[in-house]
Write a structure and sequence with these properties.
It contains three helices and four strands, in the order E-H-E-E-H-E-H. It is globular, with a radius of gyration of 13 Å. Strands 2-1-3-4 form a four-stranded parallel β-sheet, sandwiched between helices. Strand 3, helix 2 and strand 4 form a beta-alpha-beta unit.
């Protein structure tokens, strides 16, 4: 298995940003979506050129289609802004945890 790419993201402004998640449990994903929406973010079910952040779970040991699509868009589109954030390893994990506590 090849090493997955993770971007270094320290803090994000959620309001108005587009989020997609992959590799999370159904209940974990729904909880995260609810909190992102409460903070003013936009949740999408699929990665596209307008996605700002793809949140991945490092416990998931496979490359998902959403992850592959994000990498493809980053490689083929100029100025693509998709950031890949590991839910557990990222330096923004405390911010995401705060979303769960809201």
């Amino acid at each position: 298995m090849k090493k997955m790419i993770r971007d270094k993201v320290k803090f994000i402004s959620i309001r108005g940003k587009s989020f997609v998640h992959t590799g999370l449990s159904v209940s974990g994903g729904k909880g995260l979506e609810t909190r992102i929406k409460m903070a003013g973010g936009i949740c999408k079910s699929a990665v596209s050129g307008v996605t700002d952040y793809l949140i991945v779970d490092s416990d998931y040991n496979g490359e998902t289609t959403k992850y592959a699509k994000a990498l493809d868009l980053r490689a083929t589109e100029k100025n693509n802004k998709i950031r890949i954030v590991d839910l557990k390893l990222s330096s923004m994990r405390s911010q995401i945890r705060e979303l769960f506590r809201m």
